[in-house]
Amino acid sequence: MKNWVTCVFLLFFNLVFSASPATVLFDGRPRLPIILHPSASEGTLAVAKEFSGYLEKMTGHSFDIMVANSAAKPGIYIGTTGHFPLPQFANDLEIRRAHDGLESLVIHPDGESLHLVGATELGASHAVFTFLERLGCRWYFPAKEWEIVPELVRIVADFEVIDRPVIPSRRIWWGYGCFDHREGRCREDYEAWARHNRMAESLKIQCGHAWQSVIIGNQKTFDAHPEFYALVKGERKGPQLCVSNPEVRKICTDWALAKLERFPEHDMVSMETSDGLGHCECEKCVAMGSVSERVFGLANEVARAVDKAYPGKMVGMLAYSDHCEPPSFQLEPNVYVQSTNGFVRGKYSFDELLELWPQKTRNIGFYEYLSVWPWDFDQLPGGRANDISKMTANLRNYAKAGATSVSCESSNNWGLNGRGYYLANRLMWTPDADPDEVLADFYEKAFGPAACAMRSYYERFDGGNQPLLSEHLLALGFRDVQEAVGLSEGRPDVLARLRHIQQYLHYVRVRWELSHLPKAEKERRKAFTLDGLSWGYRTRYSYMNHWAAMRQSWTDDAAKEFEDPLLSYRAKEAQPWKSDEPVTAEETERVFQADLARFQPVKLLERDFSQNLVPSGLANAHHGKVGPQPLSHLFQRPKRYVAYGKAGETVKFTITTGVIPHYRDRADGIWKVTDALGNLLGTGNFPQDGQDHPVEITPKSTGLLWIDFNDFGGGWGISAEEGTPLCFAIPRGQRILHLGQFRQPLFFFVPKGTKRLQFFFEGNLQPHLHQPDGTVARVVTENGKYVEVEVPEGLDGQAWHFTRFAPKNFWFVNAPNYLAASPETLLVPKEVKP
User: Fold this and answer.
1) Beta bridge partners of 634
2) Burial of 277 (0-12, 13-18, 19+ CB in 10 A)
């Protein structure tokens, strides 16, 4: 059925103006040919052919491609301002600061012709695909099934667009790479997605680990001079260098100059350290100062030589790990720094580094982790790419800091993160784009009549919505997709996309089973593993799963676990999971129905409680030795506690920092105490020194004290004297990284009238749930599930407790989510206070 809408106004384009008169491209037949300049490159010719192909798909008619020296006759002109000048747009297409503007574009109709022009041929390509997007085309994911090409009976260019990206270098790239390496369908599909969505690098960043390459390029010299290596624990060894050695510095400089000579097209050369720690401990290196002082000092020296030999070229560095903080000196004007949002060590947090680095260099970029296979294994709810609010805030902060590059380490896992990758690319071009509008467009155009069901599916697992990944949540997500399939009858394009989602969800089911099956059940584990690997291989061109990582990592792990070398991708013989039999729609539906039956929703007994907490007034009913005791908990990563203080009386607690000795080089831990209204009562920093740091707060009014502590990964503990009303506020949907199990009983309140207690539990141990008198009411054997426990008559309105408690994730459905060291110190919502 034809789409009678000429074009759709898209809010995520930057500068859009009305233009008059409009230019008619098609009205039953092509009105205009596509015209290129004789000097157009092969790349521009390829873009023109793509453009012609998409116009033909939309209209059913072919558009000729011609060559002309000037815009003297009516046509669709594709090229640069040098090919087809538009003097009225000279300022809009101006290239500033060498790279800002290389991708600038103009779409200009003049009544007779349409100009799709860029400052460069890259900008011209962007103009073409921007125009097609304005006509309704979309390329959401790399697989062809996720391409949207509307059918049009009339195409009128009645709009003008002037645009350029805010961030010149934008990359979303896959760890482990493409599974068919440099040439093949996977890489072609990835590059097409990038081209269609205007993801590019005006400024080509080179700041990856390089010192190991310096060594390899001068191996004979290093073999003859072991003193060129870093001195570590009395031994000279790589992969780090002794940067105080003048010969090493000369080798690095010569290597950088030689590389730029070999690759004159490169914008920069990396002088980044080898990965890992182990920097030189010799007396001269130590005298130079911190690792940052040394490595950025070397970068400055190399940069001066580069500027002299190759003006305009740069030296790339990461702000990473033990050299993530700025040096004391200014960097040379041609040193480029990418600050990594991860593996941050030293005295500054990443937020502080975000402010500090632009003070040392005008050439700043950021390295973001949207998805990393060893971190999420393609499993829900995923990482930053599937946390829309957090990802949006990060990308906007980078732009605000003046970033000229954002490099996003990601995975080829569009079933998990495709929505996030698509949005991230939009935000890197236009950071103030509205994510809700971009995603609404995605739901509507990708899923048509099933848009609402699929919005529900994606939002269930969004990290910002604090999902509790459970069999229940999976059951609801599977049923969203089932509903979407039912709504999409008669829409084969939508059903093809939903089949991809169903295929991804089968992988989710397989990994769920493997994460919950004991190691001893080898036969079942092997069967699921073979199923998952075979499914991943057979569906690899849907790009729902990161097959390159699965092949390189999972197959080796499987070979070791099951002592079967044939499972590894390295095996010369045919692997048992390797089958090129296509996965049909019928097979996908059959497998999905089995998965749907596997996960069943439960009836949640949800109950909401206020944060108006007061002392419970409860006494210990247990006759054993559980009752009043000091609170003492150990964690890694930020957590929140809540205390209760009376006006004029001091509340005391102690924070222990640097509990993990290896991470005592992290930024100082930050504590903050606020009252019930959010007013700051106290804040400060504590060094990661492994010591106890007492805190005293004397509130002016009686009420709650919210205690927040961020350890920046160094590990921390909190303790309080016996009888202090202090509770751990359970974080919904966040992993509870406690260091060892909670070593003391943890009490919680069961409100009056509760017939059945319901909670979600995921963890390693099987906790014991105790009634008020200490009797074990339940040994929790469920894992990753909701648990229901009967509350005997007369035992509601009291404090129960857990022992052997080591949750990874936990949440009460119908009880307040606060845990205390004793009933006496428990705080409860005022409306349910006994």
Assistant:
1) 717
2) middle
Give 621's pLDDT tier (boundaries 50, 70, 90): low
Contact assessment for residue 271 and residue 298, using Cβ atoms and an 8 Å cutoff? yes
Peptide bond into 687 cis (omega under 30): no
Strands 76-80 and 34-36, sheet pairing = parallel
DSSP strand pairing (154-163 vs 34-36)? unpaired
Most confident of 18-32, 270-284, 336-350, 738-752: 270-284
Pairing of strands 405-410, 169-174: parallel
The pLDDT of residue 2:
36
Q: Which tens digit of pLDDT belongs to each residue from 757-807?
A: 999 999 988 999 999 999 999 999 999 999 999 999 999 999 999 999 999
| R_g of the chain computed on alpha carbons | 30
- Taking the CA of residue 728 as centre, how many other CA atoms within 13 Å lie in the half-sphere pointing to its CB? 27
What pLDDT score was predicted for residue 622?
Answer: 59
H/E stretch holding 50: helix 42-59
Could you tell me the strand order of the sheet in which 268-270 lies? 169-174, 405-410, 364-369, 335-344, 314-321, 268-270
pLDDT bin (cut points 50, 70, 90) of residue 18 is very low
| Largest separation between any pair of C-alpha atoms in the chain | 97
Which residues make Cβ contacts (< 8 Å) with residue 491, sequence separation at least 6?
448, 449
φ/ψ region of 343 (left if φ > 0, alpha if ψ in -120 to 50, else beta) reads left
Prior bond to 239 cis, omega within 30?
yes
The three-state secondary structure class of 205 is coil
Q: Is the pTM of this model over 0.85?
A: yes
Q: Which sign does the torsion angle of CA 774, 776, 778, 779 carry?
A: positive
Cα 291 from Cα 279, distance rounded (Å): 7
Amino acid letter, residue 78: I
- Measuring CA to CA, which residue among 320, 326, 352, 291 is closest to residue 667? 352
> Strand, coil or helix: what is 682?
strand
Residue 321's φ and ψ, nearest 5 degrees, are 55, -120
CA 565, chain centre distance (Å)? 34
C-alpha dihedral sign at 138, 144, 150, 153: positive
pLDDT in tens, 366-395: 999 999 999 999 999 999 999 999 999 999
Query: 832 and 752 in contact (C-beta within 8 Å)?
Result: yes
Sign for the CA dihedral angle at 359, 384, 11, 110 comes to positive
Q: How many CB atoms lie within 10 A of CB 817?
A: 17
Give the percent of the chain with pLDDT over 90.
91
Return all residues near 87 (Cβ < 8 A) that are at least 6 apart: none
Q: What is the mean pLDDT of the chain?
A: 94
Which DSSP string corresponds to 58-120? HHSS---EEE-SSS-SSSEEEEETTTS--GGGTTTT--BTTTBTTT-EEEEE-SS-EEEEESS
Reply yes or no on whether the pLDDT at 627 is more than 60: no
What pLDDT does residue 20 have? 53
Question: Is the separation of the CB atoms in 695 and 655 below 8 Å?
Answer: yes
